[in-house]
Amino acid sequence: MINFYKDITFYALLFAVVSTPLAGLYGAVIVFGIFGTPVGLLMYNYFHKHEFYGYYNRGFTKRYLILRTWLVNFLVSPALLLVAFLILKLIGLGALKG
Fold this sequence. Notes:
This protein is mainly α. It has one domain (1-96). 87% of the residues lie in helices and 0% in strands. It contains three helices and no strands. α1 (2-48) crosses α3. The protein is elongated and about 55 Å long.
């Protein structure tokens, strides 16, 4: 199950990074938490659709995998939002030049 999570989260992070110029850093974290999993799932279906059979044989349903991944990403988002806030605050204070 961890491989499914890693693949979906990789695609979700990729989507969030691509959306950063349009949505900003805060918006990218929100995009990751809410919209990242569905977009990651679409990309996973396109590239790794055959792997669902392996998870099904291990007793994991598609619905269980998707809900678990979305829940973990949704719960990780506040921590990412805090990190984004701290980075922007440090840049605003001049601690991080770049």
